[in-house]
Amino acid sequence: MLDSVDHIIIAVEDISVSVENYTKILGFPPTWKGVHPGQGTENALFPLENLYVELLASNGEGPGSDMIKSFIELNGEGLCGIALNTSDIEAARNKLVAEGVDIGNFIEGEGKDEDSGEIRTWKNLFLPFSLTRGLFTFLIQHEDGSIPNHRDEFDAAVTRLDHVVINTNDPEGLISLYRDTFGIRLALDQTVEQWGGRMLFFRLNHTTLEVIAKENGEQPEDSLWGLAWVVTDIRETYARLISEGLEV
Asked: Where is the signal peptide (predicted)?
């Protein structure tokens, strides 16, 4: 059903300021900066070896703009959502419908790069919060165009995303969703006595979804918590971050 973790979405207020900040953090600039016609959003994309990071901001009116504004109002800037790649979005939708998920049709998406004028197209299938337990998640099938990779090498840069951390208060329900419904391999399930919870590792195309689970008897809820980056030489990356004026 799913092929990979496609990208991680970070909601930001000012795209220019955020591009400057994440260029310092990652060690290279974005290869795509553009807009989503009809959505009221603009973005910047940073490609890594195994996925890409998307900074997403409101720049007008539309459903995408409303979503970003609401998220930032409730949570502030930060990790907003996760996109899962599929090569057959129609088959994925049919599988979910067959399992009783109340879901809409997929939506055609389009983005235009502000520098090159290149257009990319894709199909999205937004998953209901009743299924994802509050975590903004959607499936994506890329159609025409692609995100450019950097031709240059950058010293002490981030090369890939090792894992994304998800918090949950309902580990069994999350296993049912990610392993049984999504078909993502559960590679680790262990109890951690030190803090009285469970740690789960789901692996999909060389990317790990690390789940920290603490049950509290409340309504099931999942949320993104953090990202772990891979670098070639951590000492060199540390020195680069310090030289950029970042606190690490």
From this structure: none
